[in-house]
Inverse folding.
């Protein structure tokens, strides 16, 4: 067995433990001034659960994020098994892309936990950044494959986007001061690029941007709203970016059943449940141990695992 086969798993475990140790130490000193959007202790939070004193202001909504950490650590364990078995590929073993995917899946947990646990502005920043850091990976993988980018270019573009977003979000808040929902836009980029990855053609490159409107509609944003507020939804013009970057057909073929389909169903189910985890919803019970937002976290964590397994189904495309 290679001596370093499970080193990333050991690092992931150590980082996870270190996070909770640091979190506890800081939390015992008090989190300081809460964010302006958060409620006081005893009130019902934005995500239905009643705000508690102590280091976890929303205990269920905070600790349910362990699902992301467990999912990501399991990915690292599987990647270690790849090394032992000699399996190689973009999403196998110690490939930088595979490790990046697993690492961002783990980081989704601490990021969201910091928001629900601390109710601070910096916790909200960490939560939003963790989502962007994860969702960048699949669509950049897709366009880099079709654009024939070398791995160093993909990683440098990824790092640049993360850095720019992190600073922009810290300075200008949600929307980066220009009404840009980069997380939501990246979901559209992923689906658009996935369609291109499977059915690439020059014609589809031109038409692919219209798929973004379908994705937006699934999440409740209609073209009528977009036309009514063009200054708010200007970013729909970026729906054509994946098509511009996808200069050639995909280098591989993936199996969309069962893992991609299961991931989509899991995430959309999570989104539907997420809608019920708000104070004004009839199903909201702020004192229950069963919180809709906590279920959203667990189902979303499962979705990240499904998409990881889906990306591992890729095989080299047959030659024409």
């Amino acid at each position: 067995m290679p001596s370093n086969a499970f080193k990333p798993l050991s690092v992931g475990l150590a980082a996870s433990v270190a996070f909770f140790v640091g979190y506890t130490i800081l939390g015992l000193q008090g989190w300081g001034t809460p964010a302006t959007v958060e409620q006081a202790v005893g009130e019902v939070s934005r995500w239905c659960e009643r705000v508690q004193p102590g280091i976890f202001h929303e205990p269920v909504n905070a600790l349910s994020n362990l699902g992301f950490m467990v999912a990501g650590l399991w990915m690292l364990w599987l990647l270690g098994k790849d090394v032992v078995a000699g399996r190689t590929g973009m999403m196998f073993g110690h490939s930088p892309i595979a490790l990046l995917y697993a690492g961002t899946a783990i980081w989704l947990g601490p990021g969201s936990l910091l928001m629900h646990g601390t109710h601070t502005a910096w916790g909200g920043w960490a939560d939003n950044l963790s989502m962007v850091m994860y969702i960048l990976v699949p669509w950049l993988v897709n366009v880099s494959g079709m654009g024939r980018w070398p791995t160093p270019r993909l990683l440098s573009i990824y790092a640049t986007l993360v850095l720019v977003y992190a600073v922009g979000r810290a300075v200008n808040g949600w929307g980066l001061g220009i009404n840009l929902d980069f997380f939501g836009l990246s979901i559209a980029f992923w689906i658009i690029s996935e369609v291109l990855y499977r059915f690439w053609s020059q014609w589809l490159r031109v038409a692919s941007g219209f798929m973004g409107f379908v994705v937006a509609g699934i999440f409740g944003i209609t073209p009528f709203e977009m036309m009514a507020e063009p200054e708010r939804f200007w970013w729909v013009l970026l729906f054509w970016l994946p098509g511009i970057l996808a200069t050639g057909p995909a280098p591989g073929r993936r199996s969309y059943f069962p893992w991609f389909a299961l991931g989509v169903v899991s995430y959309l189910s999570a989104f539907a449940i997420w809608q019920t985890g708000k104070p004004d919803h009839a199903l909201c019970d702020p004192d229950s141990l069963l919180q809709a937002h906590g279920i959203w976290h667990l189902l979303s964590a499962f979705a990240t695992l499904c998409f990881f397994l889906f990306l591992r189904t890729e095989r080299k495309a047959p030659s024409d």
Notes: The longest strand covers residues 252-253. Residues 60-119+251-320 form one domain.
